[in-house]
Design goal:
It contains 8 helices and 8 strands; from the N terminus they run E-H-E-H-H-E-E-H-H-E-H-E-H-H-E-E. With about 170 residues, it is of the alpha+beta class. The protein has 2 domains: about 80 residues, Winged helix-like DNA-binding domain superfamily/Winged helix DNA-binding domain (Arc Repressor Mutant, subunit A, Orthogonal Bundle), CATH 1.10.10.10; about 60 residues, Arc Repressor Mutant, subunit A (Orthogonal Bundle), CATH 1.10.10. Helix 1 crosses helix 3, helix 4 packs antiparallel against helix 5 and helix 7 crosses helix 8. The chain is globular and about 45 Å long. The two termini are about 20 Å apart.
């Protein structure tokens, strides 16, 4: 790892079927059950599809909301604040770490460069990351973009436009 990679965390490809509700539901459950819950128990308690839960956990980890220690899930400080927060606080806390998810990071980078993305360019980004489940991913990325207050489709469904783009921290690339 060279110096430029140090301190820069790896980005996670957002699973096409994990919504903000899945991640927030996971946090609510962890908050209500307490710290250090076995991830197998979490799956039983949530009643989620066994294939979906690991992906929701991955997203929560990428967003610095949970950590896994010895097979147990624990809320981080950010995760506790999100689980206990009001909608505005939750969105702000998630907005701060949203660039840890692809293709959200790539879309934000393009919006910063161009100001807006024609729908075909947006779809091209989505298709590049999700060649097999494009339609599901397209909808989900738009849900995440709007939920995080980053971007949305315009009223004519012709362009993706920014809502409020995060600023890169000093020395950090988007």
């Amino acid at each position: 790892m060279d110096q430029s990679d140090r301190g820069r965390s790896k980005k996670l490809l957002l699973p096409p079927d994990v919504t903000p509700d899945h991640v927030l539901g996971l946090l609510e459950l962890l908050r209500s059950l307490g710290s250090g819950i076995d991830s197998m128990y979490v799956g039983d308690a949530l009643g989620e599809d066994v294939d979906l839960l690991p992906h929701a956990i991955d997203v929560a980890e990428a967003l610095e909301l949970v950590v896994q220690r010895s097979g147990n899930l624990e809320l981080t400080e950010r995760g506790r604040r999100v689980a206990a927060g009001n909608p505005k606080t939750v969105k702000e806390l998630l907005h701060e770490v949203a660039l840890k998810l692809e293709p959200i990071s790539e879309i934000v980078e393009q919006l910063k460069k161009k100001g807006e993305l024609p729908v075909d360019e947006f779809e091209s980004i989505i298709r590049k990351h999700y060649p097999t489940n494009f339609e599901e991913a397209l909808k989900n990325v738009l849900v995440w973009g709007a939920y995080l207050g980053l971007f949305k489709m315009d009223e004519d469904d012709e362009r993706v436009v920014p809502i409020r783009l995060p600023r890169a921290k000093r020395g950090e690339r988007v």
